[in-house]
Amino acid sequence: MDDSFYYKRNIVKELVPSSILGESRTVRISLPPGYQELITYPVIYCQDGEQFINFGRIATHMNRLVYDEGVEPAIIVCVDTITAVRTSEYAPDGALFEDYCRFFTQELLPFVEQKYPVRTSQSERILAGDSLGGTVSLHLALDYRDLFGKVISLSGAFLQSTQERIAKEADLSWLKLYMLIGLEEQEVITERGTFDFLEANRQTRELLEARNCQLTYFEKQGKHLWGFWQHELPAAMKLFL
């Protein structure tokens, strides 16, 4: 097949009005190959949406998975972040964290589900995020388990507050989680300090396994960068589709 098939992306830019955030948020909807409005699709909701498209190449990955591996097509909803408030929205102890989670569940989901033929069952909604995006994705699943049952975490920032949140759960057998962490992520510099993400992910893995989470966990050579995550993303997508 001519390689150009892989790079034909059908991306629709939307503005989702939000009374909770007090502003509209840009969302990029990537429609899969052969898209038809008369059939329904699984859906992947990505934090840091613009980065998932530009650096993660998630739309191109979807094309390859559909054309080459017969994976079921999915609609990808990429929610843009605003750099100035990203940590405040994504970090569990951030001032805007609760607002962002309410926006996501009460405004974003209804907007998407009214305009696009996405499936609405917990098992057909996938959350995806890198670093703090992985953190907020996991918390969304834990706090809204009737809405989300699958999470893709690329080097999630699973620090103390997230570990404490997991520890409150008795049974996580309903949760399917893909975790990737790089072996070179022992000193990740963030705006909140420098953290050992590798050790944090190992500790989180133990907490999740003790609660029977359906966990797929990988440690691979890699740094806290899209150059690492981009190549691992297709396997995570394939796992849940």
From TrEMBL:
UniProt xrefs under SUPFAM superfamilies: alpha/beta-Hydrolases
One Pfam family here: Esterase
Coiled coil: none
Protein name: Esterase family protein
